[in-house]
Amino acid sequence: MKLYSYWRSGTSYRTRIALELKGIDYEIETVDLREGAHKQPAYLEQNRQGLVPTLVTDEGTSICQSPAIIEYLEEYKPSPALLPVLPEDRATVRAMAAVIGCDTHPLGNLRVLKYLKAEFGQDQAGINKWAATWMIPAFETLETLVLNNEHEGEFCFGDTPTIADCYLIPQLYSADRFEVDLSPYPKLLKVRQACEELKAFQRAHPDNQPDAD
Ligand SMILES: N[C@@H](CCC(=O)N[C@@H](CS)C(=O)NCC(=O)O)C(=O)O
C-alpha cells in the first residue's frame, strides 16, 4: 500500500500508527503541505479534497479521510484488532476517537490557522490560545472517559491499543507544538507513555518520517 502523508499532519500520523499496529507493509509518498503540494493536480487526482492523508491500496483504490482509512484497515486486516469485541465497547472507543477527530482536530487544521493569521491578524500567541481553547475541553473529556470506563488499563481502553490511541497520540503531539499544558491530564500522559514504548508508535512518529526537518 501507499500512504500519502505529511510528517507533522495529525491525520497522517494517526493513520501511520494504525498501519504500523496492524503490521501492514506500506510506503510513504510525502506531500509537502507548506509548499502547497496537496493542491497540485497530481495529488488532487488521488484526493479531491486536497487534504492528507490518502491511502492507495494494492489494487489501486484511493481512500481519503483518515477515519475511513483506519476503519478500512480494521476490516482489511482484523488482527491485531484496534476495536474491542462488544458493540457497546466499540462505540465507546469510536466516541473517544470522535472527540478528537470530529470536535478538536478540525479546529487546529493548517487552513484554519492560516485563516486566523491572514484574516484576523493573529500572531503565534493568539494561535496558541486558539489551539488551547479547543484542545482543553477535549482532553478534559477524554481524561474522564479513559478513567471511568470499565476497561481502564494501560491504554485508552484496556491493555492493548485501539483506534482511540491512534487519535489521542497525535493530538497530544499537537498540544506540545502549541504549548498546551498537559499536566492536568495524568491519565492521558500515562497512556502516552505506554504508547511510546511500542515500536509501532515510534515508527509512526513525525520525527521518524522521511520528510521530517
Ligand atoms: N477529516 C480529514 C481531515 C484531513 C486534514 O485536515 N488534513 C490536514 C493535515 S492534518 C491537511 O491536509 N491540511 C491541509 C490544509 O489545511 O491546507 C481526515 O481525517 O483525513
Give a description of the structure.
This protein is of the alpha+beta class. It has two domains: 2-80, Glutaredoxin, CATH 3.40.30.10; 87-201, Up-down Bundle (Glutathione S-transferase Yfyf (Class Pi), Chain A, domain 2). 52% of the residues lie in helices and 7% in strands. It contains nine helices and four strands. It has helices spanning 10-22, 41-44, 66-76, 87-101, 110-120, 124-147, 163-177, 186-196, 199-204, and strands at 2-5, 27-30, 54-56, 62-64. A four-stranded mixed β-sheet has the order 2-1-3-4, with helices on one face. Helix 1 (10-22) runs parallel beside helix 3 and helix 7 (163-177) packs across helix 8. The longest helix is centred in the middle third of the chain and has 24 residues, at 124-147. 35% of the residues are buried. The structure holds glutathione (GSH). The site of glutathione (GSH) has 13 residues, from helix 1, helix 3 and helix 5.
